[in-house]
Specification:
alpha+beta; Ribosomal Protein S5, domain 2; five-stranded mixed beta sheet; five-stranded antiparallel beta sheet; 4 helices; globular
């Protein structure tokens, strides 16, 4: 199959966006009653749930750590989330991304507050259209906040890439498949700190700082939407309140 044209002469992408525009984003917290904290995040057609359980007792007990909590993370794509039905169970890619997301979250969670316990995060991709790891990380951060887990900051994430020679923000699936580069980035915006950066493909030395600036622009908008989602739940006046 020949490579499709991904950007028109007028600079319009396959889904109608300009190079520096995010997909439509939807965020909700507290969507799963049986968890301690949860979130639902949509980036375009990519849809992800995240749930947090804990802090809770470690089983078996001898695996617990005396000075901090253990942060466990499971990133999983449902078999119906992609066009070609995915095998059941965890793939090597899902195991790798579980580790990548966990390590990013460990940079902001105050694990030392809960020694000898575990905090378990489950990320379930129910529909995939590019950017699943960044959407999952964004959702996991919200779910931790909803669970009341103390953190130095929320984490917001997005991918930048190169498509038809042009740097673009928030790649969709077709851009991810046929573009020249894909660079997922996550930040703790309060500290201007990058907690995740991966690169598939190639960008030039001159393009790299431009890609970072483009990612940061998107991340600050995502961060604003995260805080708004939390405020919608926790700033609402209780029934009968003043």
């Amino acid at each position: 199959m020949s490579k499709p044209k991904l950007i028109t002469e007028d600079g319009i992408r396959t889904d109608g966006r300009r190079f520096d525009e995010l997909r439509p984003i939807r965020m909700e917290v507290g969507v799963l009653d049986k968890s301690d904290g949860s979130a639902y995040v949509e980036f375009g057609k990519t849809r992800v749930f995240a749930a947090v359980f804990g802090p809770r007792e470690v089983h078996p007990r001898h695996l617990s750590l005396p000075d901090r909590a253990i942060l466990n993370c499971r990133y999983h794509m449902t078999s119906f989330s992609v066009e070609e039905r995915k095998p059941l169970g965890m793939t090597r890619r899902e195991v790798e991304l579980s580790k990548v997301i966990r390590e990013a979250l460990e940079t902001v969670v105050f694990l030392e507050e809960f020694p000898r316990t575990s905090i378990d995060i489950y990320i379930e991709v129910v529909q995939a259209d590019g950017g699943t790891r960044t959407t999952g990380l964004t959702a996991a951060s919200l779910a931790l906040a909803d669970a009341g887990i103390p953190m130095a900051d929320l984490i917001a994430a997005v991918a930048v890439g190169k498509v038809d020679g042009q740097l673009v923000l928030d790649l969709n699936d077709v851009e991810d498949k046929y573009g020249e580069a894909d660079m997922p980035i996550a930040m703790a915006p309060r500290f201007n700190s990058i907690v995740l950066l991966q690169l598939n493909g190639r960008i030039s030395k001159d393009e790299f700082p431009k890609a970072l600036a483009l990612a940061k622009k998107g991340i600050m908008e995502i961060y604003r939407l995260q805080r708004e989602a939390l405020k919608r739940k926790y700033s609402a006046t209780p029934e009968g309140g003043m």
